[in-house]
Amino acid sequence: MVATAAARSDAPLFACEDIRLDLGGRSILHGISLSVRPGEVLGIIGPNGAGKTSLFEVLSGRIKPKSGRVTFKGEDVTRLPLHARARMGVGRTYQTPVVPDELTVGQTFKAARQAYRPYLTRFDAEYGAELVHLHVDHDEPSARLETMNRRKLLLACLLMRRPAILLMDEPAAGLINSEVDEIDHLIRMLSKEMNVAIIIVEHRIELLETIADGVMVMDAGEVIASGSLKDILEDPKVHEAYFESYDEEARA
Ligand SMILES: Nc1ncnc2c1ncn2[C@@H]1O[C@H](COP(=O)(O)OP(=O)(O)OP(=O)(O)O)[C@@H](O)[C@H]1O
After folding, report:
1. Percent of the chain at pLDDT above 90?
2. 57: which of 33, 65, 117, 222 is 20 to 30 A away, CA to CA?
3. The dihedral of CA 239, 241, 245, 246: what is its sign?
C-alpha cells in the first residue's frame, strides 16, 4: 500500500453506476451511483431498510445487480464473484463479527493465509495483527473472544491481504465508546496514512464526523443526498427520511 498523501490520485479507485437490484420479486435498489478515490472515506447512512447492506452485497460481489456497473481500478468487475474481487483488493467487513467456531486464533489466521493465492506468510498475519493491535493468545478459541477482539481478528485477516478498498458495514456495532475511538483511529490511519479507500455504513453520525470525507444518504433504495456531513445535516429531505424515522422509533 502506498504511504503518502502525495501519491493519491484523483481517478476513482472504486465506483458503481446506476445499480438496480431486485430481491424476492421486489425492487430494492433503484439506480445507485457512487465513487471513491484512494485514501477517501465515504460514509453511507440511511434508515433501516434503506438498502445499505444490499448495496454492499452488490459492491462486494455477493449478489449480482439487475443492471448497472461496478468498477475497480478502471476495470468492470460487475460479473466477478466475491472471492475474485477479494483477491483483486476489495475487502469487506460485516455488521456481525462471525468468527470460525471451531478454530483457535492461530488456526483462524492460518486458514485466512491459506485462503489466499499465493499463500500468505506468518509475517503477513503478524503485520495484520499489529495494524489492529490484536494482542491475544493464539491458542485461544476465536469464538471466546470479546466483540472488539473478534472484529480485530477479522480485520487483521483482511488487512494482511493489503486491500486497496474496504467496505465496512457498521464496524462499531456492539462496541463501547473507547473501542469505537480505537476503530475510528484505525480507519483514519488506514485511509490517511496507507491510502486505503473506505466505504462505511454507519448509524452513528458522530463517528462519521471524525472520519468521513463525504457522506451519502440512502432512503428506500435511492440516494437522497450526498456531500459533506454539514451539508447533508442541513438538508430537509435527510431530516424527514432519517431523523424523523429515528425519532418515531425512539417514541415507539
Ligand atoms: N433476500 C431478500 N429478499 C427480499 N427482500 C430483501 C432481501 N434482503 C433484503 N431485503 C429487503 O431489502 C430492503 C433493504 O434491506 P437492507 O438490509 O439492504 O437495508 P439496510 O439499509 O441495510 O437496513 P438496516 O439498517 O436495517 O441494516 C428491505 O426492505 C429488506 O426487507
Report:
1. 79
2. 117
3. negative
From the alpha carbon of 95, which atom of ligand 1 is closest? 27
Kindly give the distance from the C-alpha atom of residue 53 to the centroid of ligand 1, in angstroms, as a whole number. 7
Could you identify the atom of ligand 1 that is nearest to the CA of residue 50?
Answer: 21
Closest ligand 1 atom number to CA of residue 46: 21
Instruction: Select from 112, 95, 225 the least CA-distant residue to 147.
Output: 95
Q: For residue 90, which of 72, 78, 76, 74 has the smallest C-alpha distance?
A: 72
Ligand 1 pocket: which of 54, 55, 222 to mutate (most atoms <8 Å of CB)?
A: 54
Rounded distance from Cα 76 to ligand 1 centre (Å): 25
Cell numbers 453520525 correspond to 205
Which secondary structure element, helix H or strand E, spans residue 231, and what is its range?
Answer: helix 229-233
CA pair distance 29, 102, nearest whole angstrom? 37
Q: Would you kindly state where each structural domain of the chain is located, as residue ranges? A: 5-89+165-251, 100-162
Report residue 150: phi and psi, to 5°: -60, -45
Give the C-alpha distances (Å, rounded to integers) separating 10 from 35, 73, 189, 197, 231.
11, 12, 20, 12, 22
Q: What is the pLDDT of residues 152-183, one digit of tens each?
A: 999 999 999 999 999 999 999 999 999 999 99
The reply to whether CATH 3.40.50.300 applies to domain 5-89+165-251 is: yes
Atom 6 (ligand 1) nearest CA: 23
Whole-model pTM: value is: 0.91
- Residue with CA at minimum distance from ligand 1 atom 13: 49
